[in-house]
Write a structure and sequence with these properties.
- The protein has 10 helices and 8 strands.
- The protein is α/β, with parallel strands linked by helices and 215 residues long.
- The strands form 2 sheets. A 6-stranded parallel beta sheet has the order 5-4-3-2-1-8. It has a two-stranded parallel ribbon with strand order 6-7.
- The chain is globular, with a radius of gyration of 16 Å.
Length: 215
């Protein structure tokens, strides 16, 4: 059975979603599936997040995670809603431990060597590098990868279609997180065509990069 992390590393992009109305979840799901990227991180930044996760998870054709997980109660709520993986903007031992109790993948955030080392001590091997661009971007990830060769990074924050391939060129980067494909305004207006096209275009960049760099 393919794990959530396998899905993430296969597709190389996690659409990061801020949604205000769970009634628009169906349109979002249609756009992602039609665009070839059946994967989403629904951030716990709005009250619509739990119902949105439930709606998308019930479809059966999407891998749905919960983002902006900052507390133990967030972990519990996301698991109850049906999330398959969790993403946190920072590093919290309590959150790491509760996710482990639920046996669910957690990708915590870290940007310094101290944070990465602490995450490794807690058994974490895949880290969200956030906010990527304002924390040193590609150069910072390259530098951190030297002392932590067993750690994989998912840069998020400032990643766009313009620099997507540059981040993927780093051996330690297994995927990126980004919201440009599923902007909040596009979800609110149910602009399925725009979301589908942006998703397709993003995946085209990924596949072109992979083809160009295939051994």
């Amino acid at each position: 059975m393919t794990s959530p992390l396998d899905h993430i590393t296969d597709h190389r992009i996690i659409p990061v979603v801020v949604i205000d109305d769970a009634a628009t979840a169906a349109t979002l799901g249609d756009a992602l599936v039609d665009g070839g990227l059946p994967l989403a991180e629904i951030t716990f930044r709005t009250s619509a997040a739990p119902d949105t996760i439930s709606t998308l998870a019930d479809r059966g054709d999407l891998i749905v995670g919960a983002g902006t997980i900052t507390s133990v109660s967030d972990v519990d709520a996301a698991v109850q809603a049906g999330a398959s993986f969790l993403v946190s903007p920072g590093l919290s031992q309590a959150v790491v431990e509760r996710a482990a109790e639920h046996n669910i993948l957690l990708i915590p955030g870290a940007v310094t060597a101290t944070e990465v080392q602490r995450a490794v001590e807690w058994g974490v091997r895949t880290i969200k590098f956030f906010p990527a661009e304002t924390s040193g971007g590609i150069a910072a990830i390259r530098a951190l990868s030297a002392p932590f060769p067993a750690v994989s990074f998912i840069p998020t924050g400032g990643v766009t279609a313009m620099n997507l391939a540059d981040y993927l060129a780093l051996p330690s980067v297994v995927a990126v997180g980004g919201s440009w494909m599923v902007e909040r305004s596009l979800i609110a207006t149910r602009n399925v065509n725009a979301m589908t096209q942006r998703t397709t275009d993003a995946l085209r960049i990924v596949r072109a990069y992979e083809k160009e760099n295939a051994a």
